[in-house]
Each structure stands twice: as C-alpha cells, then as structure tokens.
Design goal:
GO terms for molecular function: endonuclease activity. It holds the Pfam family HSDR_N_2. It comes from Labilibaculum euxinus. By secondary structure, the protein is of the alpha+beta class. It has one domain: tt1808, chain A (Alpha-Beta Complex). The protein contains 3 helices and 9 strands; from the N terminus they run βββαβββαβββα. The longest helix has 15 residues. It is globular.
Length: 154
C-alpha cells in the first residue's frame, strides 16, 4: 500500500478469496483493504495513538440521512457526553482534495452539526472549526487532541 503522511502503524492483514483484508480495531473485524480503507485505518490509528481519542468513542461508516437519502460518514468521533464532535472524510491517496470533497462532508454535517470537520487523503489533512453562531468556519493547523474537545457542549 501507499506510504502516507502519517506515522507508521502495524496492522493485521490477511488474504481471503483473492482479496486482501485489514483488521479494523474499532469494528473488531476484517474489512476489504481498498486504497480508501488504507487511509481510514491509518487515520484511525493516528487519532487513537497521537491525538488520544478513545476507540470506544469512534464510529466507522456512521449512517447519516442527507435529504432523506442514507449516506455513510467515514469516521465520526464523539465526546464524553455521546455527542458527535468531529467528522472525518477519508479518500484514497489518488483522490485530490477538492471542493467536492468538502461539499460531501458539509452535507453530512448538516445533520450532525459537529464543531470540527477533517478531510484527508492520507497525504494532505485539512481541519475546519465550525462557528455556527457566525455561520462561518476557519481552517486550523492541527487536529485537536481529544482532551481539548472531550467536554464540548452544543
């Protein structure tokens, strides 16, 4: 798989029926190892190991209804109050981060209304902090550590 702009992590990878599978430590099962899944699994490890997010407060492929259509958000992180605080949209290394990618995560956020949005293709990572009072957002240089957002309230 591709080298990413993230620390290196160890994964359980196996072959089954002529396809590679990677063990997802959050869902506690093997999933098909696609280029996007490679980015997602590495980013999950980054969130858990570097940013100290508890695995128990991370949801993968969380169903979000957008305009009555079911969608799945790649990663949703929750705070201590079981409120969503961050959405992460993962793309393959080969996918450029464009306005369309930001539009996709913004659609998910219409329902969840989280304080932080993250978009990554494993090489580039962008984090936005939302300000719903001012109806604006700003890009921030670092993804917040769990400790700084664990007690955020609506």
């Amino acid at each position: 798989m591709e080298n990413l702009n993230l620390p290196t992590y160890s994964f359980k990878i196996k072959s089954e029926l002529q396809r590679k599978l990677i063990f997802d430590s959050i869902r506690k099962k093997y999933v098909v190892l696609t280029p996007e899944e490679w980015v997602r699994q590495n980013f999950i490890q980054y969130l858990v190991n570097e940013k100290r997010y508890p695995g128990s407060l991370i949801a993968i492929e969380k169903k979000v209804d957008v305009n009555l259509l079911p969608q799945r958000s790649d990663i949703v992180l929750y705070n201590n109050n079981a409120q969503p605080v961050m959405i992460v949209e993962c793309k393959s290394v080969k996918v450029k981060i464009t306005q369309d990618v930001f539009n996709q995560i913004a659609r998910y956020n219409m329902k969840l209304r989280v304080p932080f949005l993250v978009v990554t293709n494993g090489l580039q990572h962008y984090c936005c902090q939302m300000d719903y009072g001012k109806k604006s957002f700003k890009f921030i240089p670092e993804i917040p550590v769990y400790e700084s957002i664990k007690d955020l309230q609506d």
